[in-house]
Amino acid sequence: MADEWRDVALEDVADELTVGYVGPMASEYVDDGIPFLRSLNVDPLRINKNDLKFITPEFHSRIRKSRLTPGDVVIVRTGKPGACSVVPEWLDDANCSDLVIVRCGPQLNNRFLAYYVNTVACDHVAAHLVGAVQQHFNVGSARTMRLNLPPIAEQKAIAEVLGALDDKIELKRRMNATLEAMARALFQSWFVDFDPVRAKLDGTRPVGLDKVTAALFPSSFQDSEIGHLPKGWSIKPVGEVVDCVGGGTPSTADLKYWEGGTHHWTTPKDFSSLQAPILLDTDRKLTDTGIAKISSGLLPVGTLLLSSRAPVGYLAIAAMPVAINQGFIALKCSERASNFFMLNWCQTNMAEIESRATGTTFAEISKQNFRPIRVVLPPKELMAAFTAKVAPLYAQITANLHQSRTLATLRDTLLPKLLSGELIAKCQPL
Questions:
Q1: Is 157 exposed, middle or buried (0-12, 13-18, 19+ CB in 10 A)?
Q2: Is the per-residue pLDDT at 112 higher than 50?
Q3: CA distance 249 to 295
Q4: What is 147-212 written as a DSSP string?
Q5: Is residue 350 within 8 Å of residue 313, measured between CB atoms?
Q6: 249 with 114, same domain?
Q7: Is 355 helix (H, G, I), strand (E, B) or coil?
Q8: 285 forms bridges with which residues in the sheet?
Q9: Do 38 and 98 form a contact (C-beta atoms < 8 A)?
Q10: What is the CATH number of the domain that holds 97?
């Protein structure tokens, strides 16, 4: 019952509250060893492996105070202060810097605490940020964080209800990563390494291909300006293969462009949190009048969007008609070079795309510099075969994203009611 909940300070229900190692680290990193978490590795309710660093066992032993074990709760101090997650089982021994470390006592469930810190405690974190240059959340402020704490059984029940939804979302994310990797591997094999051509040249049947698909590949190479290419294939500037267009931003001071808008309008900011290269929604919408102010107008479903600045390199296929701001190059694709082909081509050639960016304040690649980049093109029949093989993968990715959004909406609806006690009487341990 909600009347059994009590107001406590975090330090009163934690066995230990400490902080990760603070000190110079650049010289301590090694290629392999003990995982070393930093603030960028901690997302709300998830530990990620983005640029994960490692330290030696010897250094790990010297800074044992900041050692992490599965079940510890970590709270980011700087960068994205307050982001909180539970250390997962796959990090059976790790260390960290710039994180508040909480080891829960018997009256506190770690997963419940993570949900609480990421939601209810946001105001406490924001009110206790210190520092003039870079604001941070310190361990002293974490100690005084107030919790509206139910009995431990109810904490576990709440964590299990919310955790079941988050586990399904995470499963969808991992499935999408696998599906995307499958599409990239096929592109690499067919259009970069030319594995089927090499196999036929050696007199063997290409691995994993049926006879009809295998017949679409030649059995020899031809010389070209960039080296050996499969016979019959061509090289074209990307600007001759797809239609490359830019966007714009109607005046944000003029409400007739924005108020009551229903047309999707995107900026690179929308792409910063994408977990798969599919755009389902945008933060802002335009009116008909706003759309008319953008020369490229409303781009069709399936348009491939490449961020051209701030930063260069975000990629996604639009799952709905969308207008773009000036931070994109939009690739309007066709059967000659499908959006799935061009998505993988951009990913594979991102180093060259980035190398053509210019600018002193921030890097930007213009359409003028992008269009001359050369694309190796297979015959139309082979392009169609690739598109047919990967289209179901991207369709499943899109379906998973929609399902994850539904699950996240349900979680976000339940979360405040569960953490306030409004639904606690209906929650039972699973």
A1: buried
A2: yes
A3: 10
A4: EEE--HHHHHHHHHHHHHHHHHHHHHHHHHHHHHHHHHHHHIIIIIS-HHHHHHHTTSPPTT--HH
A5: yes
A6: no
A7: helix
A8: 264
A9: yes
A10: 3.90.220.20
Closest by Cα among 243, 394, 241, 403 to 319: 394
The residues near 32 (Cβ < 8 Å, ≥ 6 apart) are 54
pLDDT at residue 425 greater than cutoff 80: no
pLDDT tens for residues 213-263?
Answer: 999 999 999 998 888 999 999 999 999 999 999 999 999 999 999 999 999
Reported as a single tens digit per residue, the pLDDT across 157-177 is: 999 999 999 999 999 999 999
Confidence of residue 420 (pLDDT cuts 50, 70, 90): confident
Q: What is the pLDDT of residue 152?
A: 95
CA angle 294, 296, 297 (to 5 degrees): 65
143 in any annotated domain: yes
pTM (predicted TM-score): 0.88
Q: Let me know if residue 306 belongs to a domain.
A: yes
Note whether residue 359 is domain-resident.
Answer: yes
Looking at residue 430, its pLDDT comes to 41
DSSP code string of 230-250: ETT-EEEEHHHHSEEE-----
* Residues 135, 271 within the same domain: no
State both tokens at 28.
């301590």
> What pLDDT score was predicted for residue 424?
57
Closest listed residue to residue 214, CA positions, set 223, 227, 225, 203: 203
Q: % helix / strand / coil in the chain, to the nearest 5?
A: 40, 25, 35
Backbone angles phi, psi at 279, to 5 degrees: -100, 115
Contact criterion met (CB below 8 Å) for 228 and 360: no
> How many residues comprise the chain?
430
Whole-Å CA distances, 356 to 116, 196, 350, 359, 366: 45, 32, 10, 10, 8
Measure Cα distances from 281 to 342, 395, 402 in Å: 21, 16, 11
Full domain range(s) for residue 308 = 234-377
